[in-house]
Amino acid sequence: MLDISFGSLPALNDAQPQAVALIGHGKATFEDSTFKALDDATAGALSRAASFKGFKGEVGQIVVLTAPSAGLSQVVLVGCAAKDGSAVGSVAVENAGGSAAKALDGVADAALALTADIAEFAPEAALGARLARYDFALYRTKKSSERPVLKALTVVASDVAAAEARWTALDAVSRGVFLTRDLISEPANILSPETFTARIEALRETGLEVEVLDEAAMQELGFGALLGVAQGSANKPRTVIVRHNGGGDEAPLAFIGKGVTFDSGGISIKPAAGMDEMKTDMGGAATVIGLMSALARRKAPVNAIGVVGLVENMVSDRAQRPGDIVTSYSGQTIEVLNTDAEGRLVLADVLAYTKDRFKPKLMVDLATLTGAIVVSLGTENAGLFSNDDTLASGLFEAGKQVGEGLWRMPMGEAYNRQIDSDIADMKNIGGRPGSAILAAEFLKRFVGETGWAHLDIAGTTWKTTASPTAPKGATGFGVRLLNQFVQSHEARA
Q1: Inter-residue long-range contacts of 318-322, CB under 8 Å, 24+ positions, other chains counted
Q2: Which of 31, 208, 246, 334 has the most beta carbons within 10 angstroms of its beta carbon?
Q3: pLDDT digits 0-9 by tens, 389-426
Q4: All domains of the chain, ordered by start, with CATH?
């Protein structure tokens, strides 16, 4: 994890090789004192390179100078101004910080500065830099390069104490994102429901309360839908309840995650191509756990509860069959027509149980639920479904503020009727057209009158291309969004 500190710009001299990155905003970049200092130290090479590259301080523009002077091993210039002239915000600076950290190559430590007009965003630049340098290297036995890797970054701040105070919360959030990325990146032969549970239990050291429901406890409670999914696997299921108590007697905010540690599809088996990515089908649960870690580490003044259903969906002589009927915790019966529509079965029991036992202020579930949402929205936005306009609006705005986009999808009775079963209360699929919506309608049958939102994060959890603040692979999408959403509730408390 990239070590972050805040301080002043180091002296640009021959005392030691140094790398410096500067985030600039528009044409004002060239009038900034830090730019001028760097330009002087490089005998004008920085301004010449910026001119040659057509650098205007806009988003996506980067200039890199390698060994520009005896006292500097590298200088990086990164733009963050919107091309439409709109005001620079935290997301643009975070992305610029990430781009700068990625560009700082072959150095172990460096400095990151911002032009004076955006200096207030120093903590956000630090967050972007840390997120960008994430690397899941646990199973690599050889170094990809012998060159130094960036380990420490000094972020230049005009008010160091203020920056450090704001960084405390962002540091907690970054650790939550990394935890989520780590969990999603783990292979399924390592991260079973049991080992996932152990990872969660280790978070007790942050102050979180952890309660585990094993298979026997869930059988006694009547978790027929979740246990039906799990019955084909030798790895036994768990439901794990995580509590953060920071809000006195207030009803908790509840976050529920789908945790299918590997999804073969069951008897309705998936195609072989791409099945390796089904280790990520626990992305919703990983996001909930990352969020709870962040809330605990920053001591959020709210009551929050995270509940995750952890199962493995496998093929065996014990596996659930298409056509089986199960009885859920709520007492409603479900005809299982497709064993690959298993996530909604897991969530059905966990949602209903959370509603009944904890009587939360609201519930938000997260799940890599459907391929259909990826067809609809691609990989830039997650699907948002809700029975509560205020809740949906709050989540949408939180996503905008941190650059994790949501798009609200329709729901309604006409869709809901499509999952009625002839021989049970409902069936777990209703046909291909609008299937992401039908999945949400299925979940809605288990939340009662509680304000509820469902985030289908199938397209945003794992990406095959890198972004400014994330490498290829697990993104940690949702941790920052939900943390921002929780903060809005803190402000109203």
Answers
A1: 318/231, 318/232, 319/231, 319/232, 319/266, 319/267, 320/228, 320/229, 320/231, 320/232, 320/266, 320/267, 321/267, 322/267, 322/268
A2: 334
A3: 999 999 999 999 999 999 999 999 999 999 999 999 99
A4: 3-157 (3.40.220.10), 172-492 (3.40.630.10)
